[in-house]
Amino acid sequence: xxxxxxxxxxxxxxxxxxxxxxxxxxxxxxxxxxxxxxxxxxxxxxxxxxxxxxxxxxxxxxxxxxxxxxxxxxxxxxxxxxxxxxxxxxxxxxxxxxxxxxxxxxxxxxxxxxxxxxxxxxxxxxxxxxxxxxxxxxxxxxxxxxxxxxxxxxxxxxxxxxxxxxxxxxxxxxxxxxxxxxxxxxxxxxxxxxxxxxxxxxxxxxxxxxxxxxxxxxxxxxxxxxxxxxxxxxxxxxxxxxxxxxxxxxxxxxxxxxxxxxxxx
Amino acid sequence: xxxxxxxxxxxxxxxxxxxxxxxxxxxxxxxxxxxxxxxxxxxxxxxxxxxxxxxxxxxxxxxxxxxxxxxxxxxxxxxxxxxxxxxxxxxxxxxxxxxxxxxxxxxxxxxxxxxxxxxxxxxxxxxxxxxxxxxxxxxxxxxxxxxxxxxxxxxxxxxxxxxxxxxxxxxxxxxxxxxxxxxxxxxxxxxxxxxxxxxxxxxxxxxxxxxxxxxxxxxxxxxxxxxxxxxxxxxxxxxxxxxxxxxxxxxxxxxxxxxxxxxxx
Lengths: 265, 265
Known about the structure:
The structure is a homodimer. By secondary structure, chain A is of the alpha/beta class. Chain A has nine helices and 14 strands. The interface between A and B is large, with 72 and 72 residues.
């Protein structure tokens, strides 16, 4: 087992049987980069190879041009923090160049910290119950719907569903965009999102989970995998999370009480 | 054909044959959101459903709470621009809340505009030549290497290669992070990146292409799909781009002169 995975208990449903098994999921951790003691950005990553990640990220952002620009590096693994010292000349040059310096407000702002605080306070209490067969039926319909994916392989899809059917369906090159389109469409057409559930083609990261939970979505189903952090947040928020929903099987990571499966009947 | 796909000519290599065929690829377009006439952020998206995208993005960012917060919406489809007018009260409330307002410098800054200008000026002139069989051999090795992916399905991998072998290999939950780790590792170990090539498990978007090209990478191979914009940039930058490299087949989207394939022998 790699250190970037963790074992957790899940419910695996396959055909007519479901069982509680141990499964491995990917770890997702916030890592905050400080440049010359100033907070620069927080990345969500696997928690491994963070020193390379910090150097590579700053090179990609154009802040450092070569390894000689770096005076020192310090990593606090447990706390998920990295400190990099670059010569003042590098920073000044960069500031003079202007235009695309990332401020600390930006990276942090995109989603992570304050949402975490604000959300954990109010778990979702949607009490719907849905049949596992219905989830798989709509998952299949969802896959069939995705014409662009089938012709190009280059997109993600996202759909809003209730207990009976798919209500909205959108595609985009990005997982986040596809979800934002669904949210925007629902808002514009005054369709209540609270208590509905989502189908997504993409992996379920903490950012996707938070974005959905903020709108009151009570269940997320993906044909792909969730991260450990997303599962933790789903548990805290009382969101039902299902991964690897394909054919006749699915993994239930949290909130199983919302799903009625064959073996409970 | 959906309006979010376009037809282009590619070279498809399959076993011992290769042929020029027409294929559909996903469109990727910049879409700039203006809030109350002020530039807010540029998103890279499919170009479809941009009105829903704009509303949903601003709702996800917490700028608008309900549809009543919106006074007017105007979309300039051709120019890829959206204008949304919200009541000053909404903006003021938001500013008072502070903390995570996205500045226009942020979204634009992450990658897109200035890179485009700066890059198109200096195409890569790396003149290596690599056998298609070697690409597929290393692609297979790359897939075998990805242990976390196999156990969890939740990560992306990226590797730096030369004409003979894989030199660096990293995984992360994000495509960008995996590439940044490779770049950081190469910088820290003084491994020349220029003229090397990349294997990636993820889709090739314009951002990934630009990030790689900025470091002088001359070829990108993915088991997944590229976007139309990434292909255009690859052509301009003289980067060789290969997608759907799986088993005995691959699609060559640009820079085919760097690949020797069976039918040319």
